[in-house]
Amino acid sequence: MTVRVQSDDFDAGVEMARLRAGNPRIGAVVSFIGTVRDLNDGQGVSTLTLEHYPGMTERSLADICDQARARWDLEDLLVIHRYGEFRPMDQIVLVVTTSAHRGEAFLACEFIMDYLKTQAPFWKKESTAQGERWVQARNTDDEAAQRWSR
Amino acid sequence: MMITVLFFASLRESVGTGREQIHLPEGVTTAGHLRAYLRSRGAAWDSALGEGRALRVAVNQVMADESALLSPGAEVAFFPPVTGG
Q1: A74 interfaces chain B, CB cutoff of 8 Å
Q2: Cβ of B43: how many Cβ atoms within 10 Å?
């Protein structure tokens, strides 16, 4: 299990190859990449700043990964989340899950993203033509996370 | 007792600081008490930490609620709902 919080970019191909290297039990590799959109709530976004809570960030991501491993039969998993200044199309987050069969890997990947969106201490600030604004949390993200506890 | 208080994102901007050491007065023993104590510092604090604000609190880097007890040296963070991913 790997959790990294970094300002540097990542190469999903390299990370996926590394995660499954030497493990013939793996039959499924699922990945999710979150990227910066140029439009949010109807306004053009020129730059996005991601702030985080060093220490708690790593801890909460590790906790989310532990929950996923307890719930599904995974071979391995990886979360990389970036912080700092971004522009549209930049990569923000990578989640990779591996398992013997695809079902477990798909579910775990979505679970990790849903929990990350509501539990991991990151905050986004957008710069638009109208000025800077903090991104507001969405109810739909809470609902997405809650469905896993039903 | 001394504790460390952290503020993040819009809350950090509203109160004008990201981190400070605070000597807690007698009777301030929970995260909720701390929030009320900080609100008493003035209008900006009262507004930023007011009841109507959706705020989260973490004690020693774990999500908590306002009943969480504070111990000496605790790290208490207040912040708006998270928006990563």
Answers
A1: no
A2: 8
Three-class SS state of B27 = coil
Which residue is closest to B76 within chain A, CA to CA?
A: A56
Question: What span, in angstroms and rounded, lies between the C-alpha atoms of A73 and A37?
Answer: 33
In angstroms, the CA A118 to CA A143 distance is 10
Kindly report the pTM of this predicted structure: 0.94
Q: Amino acid identity, residue B72?
A: P
Query: What DSSP designation does B42 have?
Result: -
What's the gap between Cα A42 and its chain centre?
A: 24
How would you write the pLDDT of chain A (150 residues) with one tens digit per residue? 999 999 999 999 999 999 999 999 999 999 999 999 999 888 899 999 999 999 999 999 999 999 999 999 999 999 999 999 999 999 999 999 999 999 999 999 999 999 999 999 999 999 999 999 999 999 899 999 999 987
CB atoms within 10 A of CB B61: 19
How far is the alpha carbon of A24 from chain B, nearest alpha carbon, in Å?
A: 30
